[in-house]
Design brief:
Chain lengths: ~450, ~375
């Protein structure tokens, strides 16, 4: 690999080491990225709303270099290039002449990690191209659209030793910590969903011009990853348990027709166009060990955002959406009473969150931005690259979460017939340690550092 | 108590006078014109206690039946009654109701109406032959539940505030006696009228899964393409369940920890994507029956049941609703035992769901 150490970041990184040492190894590395003492090389594919957010985070981390960027949208591409230069880094090489120009980038560039924030259908091809060209890759959700893609990602990972994951998420949370500590007892049922009224987004061609089309084409849970990645660690999926099968069914589809008519009148193409996607989709997933997971997808009906419910043998945590708060009931509380959960959630804040004290930086731009410090999940990504290991959310967990899309499509198409969930781990789920257990063991091995 | 001659007496026979039966007996005798003409129970002591309650309000002594577990047959054959009120264990509901119908009496039973599909069809068939109905018309969720909120909710829905229902999640999540059969009636009592099931729509098929620890979740798909997510768990540490009713124009939710039911209505709720309390809407659309409630001692459920018997109409939650609800028990078990394979609902209305009108309590 050819690379030049960025002198500025090298000096800052060296100067920061003393102070950062007190925060633990993880935090020291949050301040700068390095692999074998050299900068970490990132290539960005897709730098629209969300991609520009991740790019801006990366540019705020010393030791990150961005030698290449790819986007089919020239405006986005040149904005991204400008941001890189404004950060004091050398101008990146630009790709995006065609829809498959990412392949040229993956073949030609020297990169440690590809960051993919394109539209859904190109995620898996970009992941595969990255691994085949010797690069690791992280992707915005969802990782795959088909089961074939899911298996191909697993196979390519096992063959090349490179990984492609939803590593812009981390499996650790207050919830996973609390569940591991046994506050709720053994988990019996989880419920969550992507319940988010996206009618406006779907009809906003400026922002995500591809976002409406999946609703035209496919009747399934199109977006399972946010709720599922948040809940999988609590259900020990792929880590001592696994999804066995699912059944899924959708409601009729009326909301998008009505919305198009409301916005553009009854003559509008979409006012009468038949949409495949039912307005509400519900899926039941059962695990081999008998846990149950109810998963919702509803992006068309009017409602405040989602809710989440986690039930164990000793207690239940219930989140009713962003403005109503979270409630808990555990054995020992007065029968029939819920209590606000904030205090107990504070108590079980994940040790990673507690230890993570990033320095202030410029406000992060892009979709989801606004933070004034590097978010923890990017620190974890940088750390994984530094330690030459897979992201915390690994290949198997990533494909499992996204495979819900094709699996629900199959069940919906067969009027709710059960569909077996593939075992992407090929039996390794039986011996793979629980997420929080592995985390604690690793921390112990490092003498307390995370 | 004085009876006004203008009130047509309603003669009732009570089968099963344990705590639930006595509860119903007390509700019944508090309504003018209701006569507890006969009581039946296998337990002589309970029977005498119930008889004492009936006599205490100055009514003629009820005739008592306690000769074994099927003495209700004799009661149904010998007595002149408008209806039988059945509060026996769940296994005998269907048999008691059938005996009542075959002897020319209506029957109101505690839920569930029946435990097998065969019994359920028998009850539907005997109704269609005799026009004597059986129903779980004692279930109070819709008319009296949540301090009247469900009745007000039905009124909001009838006024179009939530649009058409498209996905309703409801259930029974409350610590109770484990090992009992599922009881879908409490949620179905409000969901079926809200979703116009058996009245313009009907349940088409369902899938169900149970966790190893007893949590059961089902999805029901309707002929029109609407969904129900139904939760049932009496083994877990549940203080109370929750419901979430999603319509095409808005959503309603009642759940744990909330200061009361919440609502969100597209274009009407002042802050986009923020819940608000439903109370102002209830105040703006007062349900006439709720306004009349006043200090009447009996639940509205009981008063409307007596009214239906007096006027010869079907109860609000009728034979088809009761059959639909109780059928869920077996279908859920069947699906859950078979990797959640979908189970088709029979059409208990035999096609009449297409023409049957929505529950309208305003004219009631």
């Amino acid at each position: 690999m050819k690379h030049r150490i960025n002198r500025r970041s090298f000096l800052e990184a060296s100067a920061g080491l003393g102070a950062a040492g007190a925060l633990g190894a993880g935090d020291a590395k949050a301040q700068h990225a390095s692999i074998d003492g050299r900068p970490a090389l990132f290539g960005f594919i897709g730098v629209g709303d969300r991609g520009s957010y991740h790019l801006d985070i990366a540019l705020g981390i010393d030791g990150v270099e961005v030698p290449a960027i790819c986007d089919i949208n020239d405006e986005h591409l040149h904005r991204a290039a400008r941001w890189v230069e404004e950060s004091g880094r050398k101008p990146p090489k630009l790709y995006g002449k065609t829809r498959t120009d990412f392949e040229r980038m993956c073949a030609q560039e020297d990169l440690d990690c590809v960051v993919c924030c394109t539209s859904w259908k190109t995620h898996a091809p970009i992941m595969l191209s990255s691994m085949r060209n010797g690069k690791n890759a992280v992707c915005e959700v969802p990782l795959v659209q088909t089961l074939e893609e899911a298996w191909e990602i697993v196979d390519t990972h096992e063959k090349t030793g490179k990984w492609a994951t939803l590593g812009l998420k981390i499996p650790y949370s207050t919830l996973s910590n609390m569940v591991y500590e046994g506050v709720l007892g053994e988990i019996t049922h989880c419920e969550g969903g992507y319940v988010h009224d996206l009618r406006l987004v779907k009809f906003d061609p400026e922002r995500e011009p591809w976002r409406l089309q999946p609703a035209v084409e496919r009747n399934a849970n199109l977006y399972p990853d946010h709720p599922t990645c948040a809940l999988m660690p609590s259900m020990d999926i792929n880590h001592t348990d696994r999804f066995d099968y699912l059944v899924s069914i959708s409601s009729r589809s009326v909301m998008l027709n009505r919305y198009a008519e409301l916005l553009y009148g009854p003559e509008n193409y979409y006012a009468t166009k038949k949409f495949a996607l039912g307005d509400a989709n519900v899926t039941l997933l059962r695990t081999v060990n008998g846990k149950l997971y109810t998963l919702h997808h509803d992006t068309h009906t009017p409602h405040p955002r989602e809710f989440q419910r986690v039930q164990g043998t000793k207690g239940i945590l219930f989140s009713l959406g962003q403005d109503l708060g979270r409630f808990i009931h555990v054995d020992g509380m007065p029968e029939g009473k819920w209590e606000p959960a904030e205090e107990i959630l504070k108590k079980y804040r994940h040790p990673l969150d507690t230890a993570y004290q990033p320095k202030r930086r410029q406000r992060i731009r892009g979709h989801g931005g606004g933070e004034t410090s590097t978010p923890l999940f990017w620190q974890r990504l940088v750390l994984a690259l530094n330690e030459k290991r897979m992201t915390d959310l690994d290949v198997y967990d990533s494909v499992t979460s996204s495979a819900i899309i094709p699996l629900t499509a199959m069940s919906v198409a067969r009027s709710g017939e059960p569909v077996d969930f593939p075992d992407f781990t090929n039996g390794k789920w039986k011996t793979s340690a629980r997420i929080e257990e592995a985390f604690r063991k690793r921390r112990q091995d490092r003498g307390g550092n995370q | 108590m004085m009876q006004t001659s203008s009130v047509k007496p309603v003669r009732l026979g009570f089968v099963g006078v344990g705590p639930r039966g006595v509860y119903h007996l007390k509700n019944a005798i508090a309504i003018p014109g209701v006569e507890p003409a006969a009581l039946c129970d296998v337990n002589e002591a309970r029977l005498q206690e119930a008889a004492a309650i009936a006599r205490a309000v100055g009514r003629a002594a009820p005739r008592l039946y306690s000769k074994g577990p099927t003495d209700y047959d004799r009661m149904c054959a010998e007595e002149t009654l408008d209806a039988v009120i059945c509060s026996t264990p769940a296994q005998t509901h269907a048999a008691v109701c059938l005996a009542a119908n075959r002897n020319g009496k209506h029957a109101a039973a505690e839920a569930p109406l029946a435990l097998t599909l065969e019994d359920t069809w028998s009850l539907v068939d005997v109704f269609e032959k005799t026009k004597k109905w059986s129903a779980t018309a004692l279930q109070e969720t819709l008319l009296d539940g949540e301090n009247g909120a469900n009745l007000s909710l039905l009124h909001l829905v009838r006024n179009g505030l939530l649009g058409e229902m498209i996905h309703c999640e409801d259930g029974v999540l409350r610590r109770g006696r484990a090992g009992r059969d599922m009881n879908p009636d409490p949620p179905m009592n409000r969901l079926l009228p809200l979703m116009n099931i058996n009245r313009g729509d009907r349940f088409d098929f369902m899938m169900s899964a149970s966790s190893a620890r007893g949590y059961n979740a089902s999805i029901i798909h309707t002929a029109k393409g609407n969904l129900v997510t139904l939760n049932y768990d009496v083994t877990g540490p549940n203080p109370a369940g929750y419901c979430r009713l999603q319509g095409t124009k808005g959503v309603y939710m009642s759940g744990p920890g909330l200061p009361g039911p919440m609502i969100y209505i597209d274009g009407i709720t002042p802050t986009p994507h923020r819940w608000e309390k439903v109370d102002p809407y209830f105040a703006r659309y007062p349900h006439p029956l709720r306004a009349q409630a006043g200090n009447v001692p009996s639940p509205l459920t009981w008063r409307l049941l007596v009214k239906a018997l007096r006027e010869g109409t079907d109860p609000v939650f009728d034979i088809y609703d009761s059959a639909t609800s109780s059928a869920i028990i077996g279908f859920s078990r069947q699906s859950a035992a078979n990797r959640s394979k979908p189970v088709q609902f029979p059409d208990f209305t035999r096609g009449r769901w297409k023409e049957r009108q929505s529950v309208n309590l305003i004219s009631a």
